[in-house]
Amino acid sequence: MKKGTAMDALLAEIERREGDLVSLTQELIRIPTLNPPGLHYRDICDLVGARMKAQGWDVRLIRAEGAIGDSESHPRWNVVCRLEGRGGPGDCVHFNGHHDVVTVGDGWTRDPFGGELAGGRVYGRGACDMKGGIATSIVAAEAFAALTPGFRGAIEISATADEESGGFGGVAYLAEKGFFDPDRVQHVIIPEPLNKDRICLGHRGVWWAEIETKGHIAHGSMPFLGDCAVRHMGAVLDEMARTLFPVLAGRRTDMPVVPEGARSSTMNLNSIHGGEPVQEADYTGLPSACVPDRCILTIDRRFLIEEDIAEVKAEVVAMMERIRAVRPDFRYEIRDLFEVLPTMTAQDAPVVRTVQDAVHRVLGKSAEFVVSPGTYDQKHIDRIGRLRNCIAYGPGILDLAHQPDEWIGVRDMVQSGQVMALALHDLLG
Ligand SMILES: [Zn+2]
Fold it and tell me: The domain at 3-203+342-428 falls in which architecture?
């Protein structure tokens, strides 16, 4: 068969499977895999596993035993399905989607776990982020394998836990077990909802830390006998506003981060707490009179590929030292909570070029390259798996993620599935 003809047949085959794609998306949405706490993970893995097994795929159910979040009551289950082509050795293309969804929240007019189909959209929590993406990659891979059983190499589909809470019981665990080693998997596509015409190359870096200012407890009627940690923190906030935030805002990246506002360094003040703990809602008493002896600020610093994490941390330490130089008795501590290095797959990496060509063929326009302001599971594939040929590409509108009445467009899934199938054809055909 001529190449053009084979590609046309593949595009038509995805169209033909639209009904199957919709019903699979609905089935996935109807399993409420809420995280936290991590519900029904085994059920959704069984559903995906049973479907793939029935078509001759090798299916492995893997529990992330001992990973954070894993427990007997809420086990962290993952499923990895693999199909070898009959054409002998070749590359392996892996589609990875997270099967967990975030809390429902208020404001819904549809059943969040009903999977309702209306006006060319499938509704439900996780419809776009990212059960529609998982269904799309499954149907694309099945269609390709049905039409081209003699392909070279292998296809893998995984549905993994806990992306919404860091991915440690999901992709990080699999990466530690070698599932994303570059000699095993050569191309990874994560069908997160980034719009069907955009290719996400990576994400900014993250540093979460706690800054604690220290004081001295005393009776609240005689604050001069103590040392107020909250007032020390006030000095920190003031110094940040004067000397740190303007510098961060002025630091621009060449990474194509969307939205535009995230093309600078940013820092969110995630929480602040000083003094007595907040009491339970049913506590009817008054506070006691104390000078707070500690105050804790949690910072969420997002940094650019042009920045070095050691310098990012040193910049905050230098700011604290400036305060200490002018403020008597200023004592503090900084504790690291979490960090992720920025990552960006090269625009000429094989998986990028392939998907770029496929987008052009299916949608008749050039794909836009983007970088995510926040991280997703690519961080584990990159850092633990050491695999540099990874992108996020999938159907769904990013802004709908985590919103009420979340939906995925059927047309978007079909076209995105066509792009994925063409990418398989190009990489393995
Ligand atoms: Zn997601």
Answer: 3-Layer(aba) Sandwich (3.40)
